[in-house]
Structure prediction request, 655 residues.
Amino acid sequence: MKKISRNHILTFAFLLVFIVLLILAQSFLNPYYKRILNLCAIYSIFAVTFNLVFGYTGQFSLGHAGFAAIGAYISALLTLSPEQKAVNFFLQPILPVLENLQLPFFPTLIISGLGAALVGALIAWPALRLRGDYLAIATLGFSEIIRVLLVNMQRVTNGALGLKGIPGHTNLLWSWGWLIVCLFVTKRLVDSSYGRAMKAVRDDEVAAEALGVNLFKHKMMAFLVSCFFVGVAGGLLANLISTIDPKVFQFFLAYQIVGITVMGGMGSLTGSVIAACLYTIFLEALRPIESQFTIGSLTIPGIPGMRMVLFSIILLLVILFYRKGLMGNSEFTWDGLINFFNKRKKKPTGYSSGGTQS
Amino acid sequence: MTIESFLQNLSNGISLGALYALISIGYTMVYGILRLINFAHGDLVMLGAYFAFYGVAMFVLPWWLAFPLAILFTTLIGIVIEKAAYKPLREFPRINLFAAAVAVAFLLENLAIVIFGGRPKAFARPAFLDQLLKIGNISFVSYTPVIIITTIVLCTVLILIISRTKAGIAMRALSKDIETTGLMGVDTNRIIMFAFMLGSALAAAGGILWAIKFPQINPLMGVMPGLKAFIAAVLGGIGNVWGAMIGGLLLGVVEIMLVAFFPQLAGYRDAFAYTILIVLLLFRPNGIMGEVQAEKV
Prediction:
């Protein structure tokens, strides 16, 4: 009992410090760094939710881009001011229902999440009854359908032009706050009896079913929780980048999320967050290699896309030679941390933590 | 709709369907054996088209040399992918194989963007494929019958390989049960490689024909045909080569007819195939030709 309360105190203390840090960062950091940190949190939510479906339940969903798009468009339409909407929809007027609709940010995000979850239920209902393979294709196909709809539903989404001038409500407190909520919910879920059933489904569907686990119910639960948070993250993303169009949500986004999750370790939420942050930061740090540089007498013009090539090569290498990823399926715990320091005190030489950077 | 325009649309649909059929065979063979959706398959379509493009445009080869070479190179890449990325993972949970397939697709697409450039390129048709033909009142460009005939020839060859040769029979045995087939003295690795080889070659051929029909190529051109060909494979009953051909043909014809009869839905054409997929998954998940099979424990 004593140990549990110690960990709780540590967690609370950490959260408190973290929130203070967020507030400080929000007020003093320059916008560029703030943007990167916001993206870190949003990608972390993507990776954590994907991990819930992929790493814990063993279902392969490639629809993250589509669900994020739904969340993003809902949040954009609900937060844009009526004047901005009039500016955006100059080709065709917006549907009258949406014209004057404007909500505060919090209910908007909830609606974004619920919208994504609702659509997720529609897609998962047929697809989850079958083996995982079909889910991958159905969700990937579905996110392409969403893109097609976004381009064609001119009066709701403004088509290929996208939506501009979305108020940038997202700040560090919003994005990291939602990440913490998402982590909390996911962690509670995977540690509950439902979570154990999900892991059983992942490891062997037939055996799990024979033991009385309702496959459909548990897959659906993981999937819907995941969809909800992806929708929220999409909403956060829209209010961060303030201009969205259907191209933002191509399947590339889904591939990136797969990559981040695999690198972080399937079945480790800590790994997902770390990998998402590393990915976002490295992607920014490597921006120079896409602009022109010179080696000796050879001037290499900027190669757009080089960062993604690097990322996919690293991803493939991780999958082939380091399947555990960054964290395997272990999580960060206070006990682990304390043990780590105790061990270091005892034998100060030659101990390094298991995870190496990918 | 007049009978002429109907026939015209039909020929258009059949040629599109033939392309889907060619591409979906590779999916269905690999899936039948390894239970793997080879996400990179669509990108082999793209590679085939680009190799043919560079063969003609850069190395000034005549088309009858450039096209087979393009197929050859794409096949080699298909084999390399199988050897390097899929084979080491065969013993691990399938989800790893999945992730590897996505990573390979991601890599090929990004490499193509970097190496070939992101901007679309214009694919020059050989002159004899660019003539306007007329039969009665139906006019079509000469590539349409060429696509259809090439597909029929390739599919016949494939069917012969699968049903008559030793490797083909071994391939069918593998799709029933890899382990037992291995115990019977079949070199499973070689046969799996052979399946990838056939699939990649057909994908490359499909890619070249695709570029002839839609002569604008870009690094992501393989994704849509790839996904739709997969749907065609599911439609026909995945794992079944005949099913893949029929499914491809059906999907192509229905897609074109839908736009022909309901022009206002043209923008939604790409969404249509997925709607078919989802409806299909609901009501007939084993496809047209697929047999209901219990999952092996």
In short: The first strand of chain B starts at residue 121 and ends at 122. Chain B is about 70% helix and 5% strand. The radius of gyration of chain B is 19 Å. Chain B has one domain: 3-283.
